[in-house]
Design brief:
The protein has about 270 residues and is mainly alpha-helical. The chain is about 75% helix and about 5% strand. The protein folds into 2 domains: about 210 residues; about 55 residues. The radius of gyration is 32 Å and the shape is elongated.
Length: about 270
């Protein structure tokens, strides 16, 4: 019982720490990409990588971190106020379907959790070709689910997209009319940034031992510590016995040396 409580506590701390740090980075990247590119839709920059990591480390429990990561993207976009159109795209009240579709898209990682449960985490993430295939499947499923969800939530059909018109005056004084829904669907291509981060981050963090099943690793470490303890107790006694024998031999040999020396001196005197 105590072991389960400590593991649950460690899981909660690990997920909270990863979520907070990743959310801050995702927030900053949403703001930074606007400042650099000028106009950009909400996209997953590091969330794909973080989702892969937390699901690998904690299975289904890792999915609880995803809504908070998506929320960081929302907040990052809402701080953009220079361009009315961009601000409108990021508004949850105007475009809530976009963020819900992102969250639903991350259901693709349920496949990972199931595979880890059936095949074992190490057998998947430690084999490079299989891991690459999983990463590609994650990305493809994520985009497919996100696109289907967005279409169904906005137009209630897959055959055509919805139309949400927004007009604003640009810097030249011209009135620009934009279909927000169509703009966001084209913006799915920005998820390619997240794919690149996913691949690079996977190989970096796998080498560092971050991408692993934490429960399995803790169990393995506990088992190794127990084996080391048994080895120390077993071979430690044997070493003590051997040392004791060496000391006894030295004690026995030392008087014999003295007797031999005395006999030699007597012979010389004679």
């Amino acid at each position: 019982m105590n072991h389960e409580k400590s593991l649950a506590g460690y899981c909660a701390k690990d997920l909270i720490l990863l979520t907070v740090i990743s959310s801050l980075i995702e927030f900053a990247l949403s703001k930074f990409c606007y400042l650099v590119v000028g106009v950009i839709t909400p996209a997953t920059y590091i969330t794909l990588l973080v989702a892969f990591i937390v699901v690998t480390r904690w299975g289904f429990y890792g999915l609880f971190a995803i809504p908070f990561l998506v929320l960081a993207t929302v907040l990052g976009g809402m701080t953009v106020t220079e361009t009315p159109f961009v601000s409108e795209v990021y508004k949850f009240s105007t475009n809530w379907q976009y963020y819900v579709s992102i969250v639903l898209g991350f259901l693709a990682f349920v496949v990972n959790a199931l595979l880890y449960k059936i095949k074992g985490t190490d057998k998947i993430v430690n084999k490079t070709l299989i891991a690459i295939l999983i990463l590609i499947v994650d990305y493809v499923l994520f985009n497919i689910i996100q696109f289907i969800s967005y279409r169904l939530l906005t137009s209630h059909t897959l055959s055509e997209g919805a139309t949400t018109i927004f007009q604003y005056i640009n810097g030249k004084g011209d009135t620009v009319t934009v279909n927000i829904n169509q703009y966001c669907e084209r913006g799915f291509t920005y998820n390619l940034i997240g794919l690149a981060v996913l691949f690079v981050g996977f190989f970096i963090f796998r080498v560092q031992g971050i991408i692993c099943n934490v429960k399995d690793r803790l169990i393995a470490e506990a088992r190794n510590r127990e084996l080391d303890r048994i080895d120390r107790e077993t071979f430690g006694v044997s070493e003590t016995d051997e040392n004791q024998d060496d000391i006894t031999e030295e004690i026995v040999e030392e008087p014999n040396k003295e007797v031999v020396e005395e006999e030699s001196e007597e012979k010389r005197d004679e």
